[in-house]
Amino acid sequence: MEQLMEQEGDNMGLAGVGMMPQHGPAGDGEETDPTQYYENRLKMLDSLRSAGVDPYPHKFEVAISIADYVAKYSSLGAGEHLLTVTESLAGRVMSKRVSSSKLFFYDLYGDGVKVQVMAGASCSEVAETEFYKCHSVVKRGDIVGIIGYPGRSSRGELSIFARNLILLSPCLHMLPNQRTGRCTAVAGKTTRAKAGADCWVPGIGRNTEAYVLKDQETRYRQRYLDLMVNHQVRHIFRTRSRVISFIRRFLDERNFLEVETPMMNLIPGGASAKPFVTHHNELNMDLYMRIAPELHLKQLVVGGLDRVYEIGKQFRNEGFDLTHSPEFTGCEFYMAYADYNDLMELTETILSGMVRELTGGTRIKYHANGADNPPIEIDFTPPYRRIDMMQELKSIAGLDIPSDLSSDEANKYLAATCEKYGIKCSPPQTTARLLDKITGHFLEATCVNPTFIINHPEIMSPLAKWHRTQPGLTERFELFINKHEVCNAYTELNDPLVQRHRFEEQLRSRQSGDDEAMALDEAFCTALEYGLPPTGGWGMGIDRIAMLLTDSQNIKEVLLFPTMKPQLPG
């Protein structure tokens, strides 16, 4: 019977990488209307329960994962069987092929890895009638448990030859049609098969046109379905997880302490952004979802925790687009006795090391101009280019900005510059906002490879320390990659009197209509009065670096459950 199963399987193209699923009389009902399919599946549940079969059993003993199974038996030769070995594994059926009422073939997936299941009536532990009933109810998407022995077909397809199949959790909805091609994983490593679309690794371009489920709305709203049928997607989120793990390991190895600070605050501080507001019923007071953990982390440095970091969610009540989300993940660290020069070197070390670990090199391919155009190459090899903001605005754009940026003259000059070059800046047109837009237009647009824009004016950087040699500027940098900000860091302002003055300036901006200006935080100012050592502070957006490393042009691609507009009824 084993030889018959192999011959039948090979004739159906089971061993080939480019196989096309074929369906016999007990196939998956792909031609059925989705509503009718759902109703039929409900009837199937009733039928099973009437027969005393629980379609949702509490437990199935899994002896080995599919990935470990593939790794363990990868050395088996073509046609080799281990008849005395019994294994039990479980996964989701993603393809079902029927040769006859006595022979069924399945592609079983678990954690992105596939193994073939070959089920013949002669090998089954149940009677032939029961065998057919059991397999006839299994459809694509069902989660099943398999008990059987390992082996390969005569053409070398690694399989488990099923002695028993148990339905563990039926899928009641019709899945999108399965695409040909697959990826093979051995011992946790991904290798590229001929079809290759699933077989993606960080740093190379992705082809979303090869996805089974293409509709973005469905993919983002039903991420479980996206992960289920678009096997490449899981590698995006594994890459994101590896980014976070790398940063955490990098900082831990340098004696940083990971901490947690409040998500809800009395004052929205630490960044210039509009906050989300929530309400505490017991205290009968409004609280603000944090826009940054900065002020709390610096208070810990005041307390003697010289190196601290936090990786977590931040919330900004602003619009969202391809690179912005109102809820995002950031990493911030604070390092006593460091300045922004140290942090630039550290940034180069972090990013070049991360890219090298994830991709094997320091250059990646990224479809910056859309999937229809050739990808660009981004080189993370240090050292990174450095642009002095004010000097470069003068040399590149020919701007002669008045030196007193707090003057009306400077504000009018910058507003006129925006109008001249068609640079949009929504009200209120404060000097800081105008400068930010002008910098984006003239400087950020040139930053494809990692580039530091350094030495921002004090008016743009209320928490950064004044520049030690250039009056009116601060020791701050922003790192841009592919024209988008990825990191922001500075030598921290630790003079409590100057900090209070900066907060008061921000308060005046807020009173003039800038709802993104920072609020005065008395608790933080009091903490500074106890003495903050010379400190460097650094922040990075996890989502944006994940976008670069996964060739994602939409931030929603790297968020498992992105914020979406409500669906209209019907």
UniProtKB/TrEMBL annotation:
Pfam families: tRNA-synt_2 (PF00152), tRNA_anti-codon (PF01336). This is Lysine--tRNA ligase. GO terms for molecular function: ATP binding; lysine-tRNA ligase activity; nucleic acid binding. It comes from the Eukaryota. PROSITE patterns: AA_TRNA_LIGASE_II (PS50862). Residues 1-34 are annotated as: Disordered. It catalyses: tRNA(Lys) + L-lysine + ATP = L-lysyl-tRNA(Lys) + AMP + diphosphate. InterPro entries: Aa-tRNA-synt_II, aa-tRNA-synth_II, aa-tRNA-synth_II/BPL/LPL, Lys-tRNA-ligase_II, Lys-tRNA-ligase_II_bac/euk, Lys-tRNA-ligase_II_N, Lys-tRNA-synth_II_C, NA-bd_OB-fold. GO terms for biological process: lysyl-tRNA aminoacylation. Residues 237-566 form the Aminoacyl-transfer RNA synthetases class-II family profile domain. It is found in: Cytoplasm. Belongs to the class-II aminoacyl-tRNA synthetase family. Keywords: Aminoacyl-tRNA synthetase, ATP-binding, Cytoplasm, Ligase, Nucleotide-binding, Protein biosynthesis. GO terms for cellular component: cytoplasm. Its EC number is 6.1.1.6.
